[in-house]
């Protein structure tokens, strides 16, 4: 087997850090609202921050980054913000697991504070991971400007979603109806179809015998 021509490692993590910290400090990929270039906007569904970034999330955003970089190279003004999903059941479950508590047995305000602790730690970890992946998000700062990091539990984001709901209501796009829902007995709440796991289990097949009311036949 031929020997490798590479006799020593030329690349280090320290060199990577210099590069992404330079991008961050110089705001290399900021979205320019005043630019005359054609806007290329990437819809970035915010990942949950209840746990460290997993390989699926990393792959998804690396692929998005390929589009973002290509479009910049072809003369577009790219809108590519980082969002963090800080709402919902995954956050509550992460708090229960971390602090070994039960939502149903913990005072509401106390539980919310523990959720906030989880959010701050995990949000910082997720942001740092995406930075180290070299993804060219517009900004690494939380703010109100286009391209800034957006949080789904911020007042601005909630206002936007509420205004959107009201607008859809006025247009007649919202309706109320009854339907069968998935229910989790452990979490004591409904679940989305995407959160339901299906499993094949052995069971029994039963014949039910009944009588016809008019003839008494079985």
Question: Can you put this structure into words, describing what you see?
Answer:
By secondary structure, this protein is mainly alpha-helical. It has a domain at 14-158: 3-Layer(aba) Sandwich (Rossmann fold), CATH 3.40.50.620. Helices cover 39% and strands 7% of the residues. The protein has helices spanning 13-26, 55-73, 89-99, 108-132, 155-170; strands at residues 39-41, 77-79, 83-84, 150-151, 182-184, 189-191. A two-stranded parallel sheet has the order 1-2. Helix 3 (89-99) packs across helix 4. The longest helix has 25 residues, at 108-132. The mean pLDDT is 91.
Quick tags:
5 helices, mainly alpha, two-stranded parallel ribbon, Rossmann fold, 6 strands, 218 residues
Largest sheet: number of strands, sense, barrel closure: 2 strands, parallel
Q: Provide the spatial order of strands within the biggest beta sheet.
A: 1-2
Number of helical runs? 5
Shape: extended
């Amino acid at each position: 087997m031929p020997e490798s021509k590479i006799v020593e490692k030329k690349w280090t993590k320290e060199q990577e850090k210099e590069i992404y910290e330079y991008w961050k400090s110089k705001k290399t990929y900021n979205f320019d609202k005043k630019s005359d270039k054609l806007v290329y906007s990437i819809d970035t569904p915010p990942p949950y921050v209840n746990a460290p970034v997993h390989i699926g999330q990393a792959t998804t955003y690396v692929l998005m980054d390929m589009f973002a970089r290509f479009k910049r190279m072809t003369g577009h003004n790219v809108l590519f913000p980082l969002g963090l999903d800080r709402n919902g059941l995954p956050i509550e479950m992460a708090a229960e697991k971390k602090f070994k508590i039960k939502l149903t047995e913990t005072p509401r305000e106390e539980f919310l504070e523990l959720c906030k602790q989880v959010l701050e730690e995990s949000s910082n970890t997720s942001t740092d991971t995406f930075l180290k992946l070299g993804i060219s998000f517009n900004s690494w700062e939380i703010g109100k400007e286009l391209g800034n990091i957006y949080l789904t539990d911020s007042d601005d984001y909630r206002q936007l979603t509420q205004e959107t709901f009201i607008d859809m209501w006025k247009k007649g796009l919202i309706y109320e109806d009854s339907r069968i829902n998935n229910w989790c007995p452990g979490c004591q709440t409904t679940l989305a179809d995407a959160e339901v796991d299906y499993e094949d289990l052995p069971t029994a097949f039963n014949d039910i015998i009944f009588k016809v009311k008019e003839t008494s036949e079985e």
